[in-house]
């Protein structure tokens, strides 16, 4: 089974072809940091109000280390326990994408924060900014939850792994990051920081696929070991997401507490609760909050972006990986 101890190396016969399909889809989504022009945002930064500048400052401080934390959990915990070469192919690709995100946010800080001391402070945010430190401590606690676990021998071991996987998919990539994306797209809806939004489109797509793969793993385990999924597990997941919402709500209060026109703390909390409910439903658990999405600009992210291809490459673009053309073909 998928969570059996060991590391199967055999790709044929393929036991989990849907994981391989996820890997191939991810390859099609290849992008590079060099395609994102952040310099167009510099004029906008000068136009921001003090409250908006504070929002952006806190946001880039979170971006500075957020994806590195996810990559650490992937390497330390996920890769060694998914006993499927197809699944590990995808996780290898995900690790590459996390590295691209880290590079993107490095470029973001270099462009937005030219002062070296200010950049150093941004990278130290997990230690010095309480709202970011709380989120980091939440992440570190779940990374450490599997620290001593080398093989998934017992039912309790498997449940611990599932909780770690669900935490990083639903709470961190699926809630913390979605909250961050909401701030970016709010600014874009006001005509600001289109360069940041352009790069975020790529990251948004990657993170959505990371979450989808993790939920595929959860569903596969559910089919193979349905006894792992009981009311106790569901309650643990609800409590986990509730804590994540509170962590992100504290971050929201930090970002918008100075008063950002058009973006209220109440709306941000409503959005976070709405996203948390979505994650619960995706996991087969009843919604907890019953909240609705207050942000129309986030609904637009479910629609493929339209763009002038001659001005910039669209984030809906995919790299072709199949098919052949012979030199004697008719055109």
TrEMBL record:
<keyword id="KW-0560">Oxidoreductase</keyword>
<keyword id="KW-0812">Transmembrane</keyword>
<comment type="subunit">
    <text>Tetramer of two alpha and two beta subunits.</text>
</comment>
<dbReference type="GO" id="GO:0004748">
    <property type="term" value="F:ribonucleoside-diphosphate reductase activity, thioredoxin disulfide as acceptor"/>
</dbReference>
<comment type="function">
    <text>Provides the precursors necessary for DNA synthesis. Catalyzes the biosynthesis of deoxyribonucleotides from the corresponding ribonucleotides.</text>
</comment>
<comment type="similarity">
    <text>Belongs to the ribonucleoside diphosphate reductase small chain family.</text>
</comment>
<dbReference type="InterPro" id="IPR033909">
    <property type="entry name" value="RNR_small"/>
</dbReference>
<feature type="transmembrane region" description="Helical">
    <location>
        <begin position="160"/>
        <end position="186"/>
    </location>
</feature>
<dbReference type="GO" id="GO:0046872">
    <property type="term" value="F:metal ion binding"/>
</dbReference>
<keyword id="KW-0408">Iron</keyword>
<feature type="binding site">
    <location>
        <position position="98"/>
    </location>
    <ligand>
        <name>Fe cation 2</name>
    </ligand>
</feature>
<feature type="binding site">
    <location>
        <position position="207"/>
    </location>
    <ligand>
        <name>Fe cation 2</name>
    </ligand>
</feature>
<dbReference type="InterPro" id="IPR009078">
    <property type="entry name" value="Ferritin-like_SF"/>
</dbReference>
<keyword id="KW-0215">Deoxyribonucleotide synthesis</keyword>
<keyword id="KW-1133">Transmembrane helix</keyword>
<feature type="binding site">
    <location>
        <position position="173"/>
    </location>
    <ligand>
        <name>Fe cation 2</name>
    </ligand>
</feature>
<feature type="active site">
    <location>
        <position position="105"/>
    </location>
</feature>
<feature type="binding site">
    <location>
        <position position="101"/>
    </location>
    <ligand>
        <name>Fe cation 1</name>
    </ligand>
</feature>
<protein>
    <recommendedName>
        <fullName>Ribonucleoside-diphosphate reductase subunit beta</fullName>
        <ecNumber>1.17.4.1</ecNumber>
    </recommendedName>
</protein>
<feature type="binding site">
    <location>
        <position position="210"/>
    </location>
    <ligand>
        <name>Fe cation 2</name>
    </ligand>
</feature>
<dbReference type="Pfam" id="PF00268">
    <property type="entry name" value="Ribonuc_red_sm"/>
</dbReference>
<dbReference type="GO" id="GO:0009263">
    <property type="term" value="P:deoxyribonucleotide biosynthetic process"/>
</dbReference>
<keyword id="KW-0479">Metal-binding</keyword>
<dbReference type="InterPro" id="IPR000358">
    <property type="entry name" value="RNR_small_fam"/>
</dbReference>
<dbReference type="InterPro" id="IPR012348">
    <property type="entry name" value="RNR-like"/>
</dbReference>
<keyword id="KW-0472">Membrane</keyword>
<feature type="binding site">
    <location>
        <position position="67"/>
    </location>
    <ligand>
        <name>Fe cation 1</name>
    </ligand>
</feature>
């Amino acid at each position: 089974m998928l969570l059996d101890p060991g590391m199967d190396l055999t790709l044929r016969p393929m036991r989990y072809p849907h994981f391989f399909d996820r890997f191939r889809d991810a390859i099609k989504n290849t992008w590079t940091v060099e395609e994102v022009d952040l310099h167009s945002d510099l004029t906008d930064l000068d136009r921001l109000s003090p409250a908006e500048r504070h929002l952006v400052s806190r946001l880039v401080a979170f971006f500075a280390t957020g994806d590195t934390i996810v990559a650490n959990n992937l390497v330390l915990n996920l890769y060694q326990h998914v006993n499927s070469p197809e699944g590990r192919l995808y996780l290898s690709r995900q690790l590459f994408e996390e590295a691209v995100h880290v590079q993107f946010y490095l470029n973001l800080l270099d462009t937005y924060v030219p002062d070296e001391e200010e950049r150093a402070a941004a990278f130290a945010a997990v230690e010095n900014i309480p709202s970011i430190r709380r989120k980091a401590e939440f992440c570190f606690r779940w990374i450490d939850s599997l620290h001593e676990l080398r093989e998934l021998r017992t039912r309790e071991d498997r449940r611990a792994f599932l909780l770690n996987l669900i935490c990083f998919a639903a709470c961190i990539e699926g809630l913390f990051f979605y909250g961050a994306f909401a701030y970016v797209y709010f600014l874009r809806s006001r005509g600001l920081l289109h360069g940041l939004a352009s790069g975020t489109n790529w990251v948004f797509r990657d993170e959505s696929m990371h979450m989808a793969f993790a939920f595929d793993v959860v569903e596969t385990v559910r089919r193979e070991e349905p006894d792992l999924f009981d009311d106790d597990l569901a309650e643990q997941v609800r409590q986990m997401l509730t804590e994540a919402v509170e962590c992100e709500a504290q971050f929201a209060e930090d970002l918008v507490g100075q008063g950002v026109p058009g973006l209220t703390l109440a709306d941000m909390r409503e959005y976070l609760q709405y996203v948390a409910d979505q994650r619960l439903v995706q996991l087969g658990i009843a919604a907890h909050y019953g909240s609705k999405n207050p942000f129309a600009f986030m609904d637009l992210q479910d629609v493929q972006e339209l763009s002038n291809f001659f001005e910039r490459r669209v984030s809906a673009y995919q790299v072709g990986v199949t098919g052949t053309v012979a030199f004697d073909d008719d055109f």
